[in-house]
Amino acid sequence: MLEKLFIYYSNDLHSHFDNWAKLVGYFNDKKHQREREGQSHWLVDIGDHVDRSHPIAEAMMGKANVELLSAAQYDIATIGNNEGITLDYQDLFHLYDEATFEVVCANLENHKGDSPSWLKKTHQVISQHGVTIGFIGLTAPFNAFYHQLGWHVRTPFEVLDESIDELKKDSDIIILLSHLGINEDEEIARRYSDIDVIIGGHTHHLFRHGEYINTVLLTAAGKHGYYAGEVILSWDHKQSKLVDKQAYTTRIDELTGDQATSKKLESLTTQAKNILSKTVTTLAEPLHVDWYHETALINKLVDTLQAWTNADVAMLNAGLLLQELPAGTVSYLDVHRVCPHPINPCVVQLTGAELLEVIRGSFTDALMNLQLKGFGFRGEVIGRMVFSGINVEVGQDGRQIKRVSINDAPVEKEKTYHVATADMFTFGKLLPEIARSPYKKYYMPEFLRDLLVDTLKDNF
């Protein structure tokens, strides 16, 4: 007898709830089809469902996301870095307390004590005809952040070396739920032939029809819920082995959304607005935003960052502030609208020579006009860099640097300075000198918008 097994999945929704009702509607249709045909099926999520750039996730600290996954009758989920490092210790510890699905993440450990009751390393399910599928979850090891929050994430390969043989003993099929990214997934596929399928995420890659490395099938459904994922496995009971593996993704933007989910989102939106409606300050006049010029609001925010971190110098890009604040009452919801990014303050050490290179790089058209997607940035362009604790004189074109000084004295090229900025500049190649700094101190769980709240209260 040949038994077909179906796994449906989502990954990297990032609280893009505009697509959520359509995803749920698609999965519901598929589940009903499987039930009519008497076929085993499971629904899983690969992490980064939470993203605090959305007011619902911000107001309920991710618990509304878990509520939505439960309402959609998910079976299993793993956690992404947005669940793991954008919530404080207690919020993550209790995030899945009310979940009706299993949470598997084999490499997440609690540094402060016992693990949460919901956290499992692996989970097994059994099909209608007795096929056992073993699921293991892994998340990206951003330990510079996790350690400050009281957690530790072990390296994926160390965990797999310990787990795969044990999981294989009791499982006919092994599926990895990987929030590690495409490069790690490909390397795992090369090393671990006992894994049958890797359902991936984190790097937002899209495999429309799955990809093979050796005997391992890799699949992923992009980001933000534009695609729904499906894996179809064929188990031959006569031969007692897996004889076929297929993976597909389906674009869902033209589909009809699930009405119950849409109503649930409307209710959660109202709840979020009520929670975030608390007044921060009252403005006598509007505070303007300009991505390419200094404004009173961005200047004061950078001053706050310098004072709050006790750094020698602070720098933030004006593109972090998305919209102006009109005169009148300013609420936490308004602050979130203006600065939605899940970005933390940080301090790096730079020599004077490196600092000068960073300043030069920040005034290039390439960086100012960069339409960054990722690293926590949820804006349009990087924009003009704004400084505190250091005087940067530029020409009339706003690009040519004429003079850089601290307390009217030139920057000392051999001296080490503590520079406060947004943590996104410590990743990638945006400003290489910052990314290469051997000293990085991340301030957590505060986001830059928390400092914006202080700025508004103290200065306007």
3D architecture notes:
The chain is α/β, with parallel strands linked by helices. The chain has two domains: 2-272, Purple Acid Phosphatase, chain A, domain 2; 278-459, 5'-nucleotidase,  domain 2. Helices cover 31% and strands 28% of the residues. It is built from 15 helices and 25 strands. The chain has helices spanning 20-36, 55-60, 63-71, 81-85, 89-93, 143-149, 156-170, 182-191, 259-275, 296-309, 332-338, 352-362, 365-368, 432-436, 448-459; strands at residues 2-10, 40-45, 76-77, 102-104, 108-110, 119-120, 122-126, 132-139, 151-153, 173-179, 197-200, 211-213, 216-219, 227-236, 241-251, 279-283, 313-317, 328-331, 345-351, 385-388, 391-394, 401-406, 409-410, 416-422, 440-442. The strands form six sheets. The chain has a seven-stranded mixed β-sheet with strand order 6-4-3-2-1-14-15, with helices on one face. Strands 7-8-10-11-13-12 form a six-stranded mixed β-sheet. β21 and β22 form a beta hairpin. It is globular and about 85 Å long. The termini are far apart.
Layout: helices, strands, pairs:
Elements: E1 2-10, H1 20-36, E2 40-45, H2 55-60, H3 63-71, E3 76-77, H4 81-85, H5 89-93, E4 102-104, E5 108-110, E6 119-120, E7 122-126, E8 132-139, H6 143-149, E9 151-153, H7 156-170, E10 173-179, H8 182-191, E11 197-200, E12 211-213, E13 216-219, E14 227-236, E15 241-251, H9 259-275, E16 279-283, H10 296-309, E17 313-317, E18 328-331, H11 332-338, E19 345-351, H12 352-362, H13 365-368, E20 385-388, E21 391-394, E22 401-406, E23 409-410, E24 416-422, H14 432-436, E25 440-442, H15 448-459
Parallel strand pairs: 1-2, 2-3, 3-4, 4-6, 8-10, 10-11, 11-13, 17-24
Antiparallel strand pairs: 1-14, 5-9, 7-8, 12-13, 14-15, 16-18, 17-20, 19-24, 19-25, 21-22, 22-23
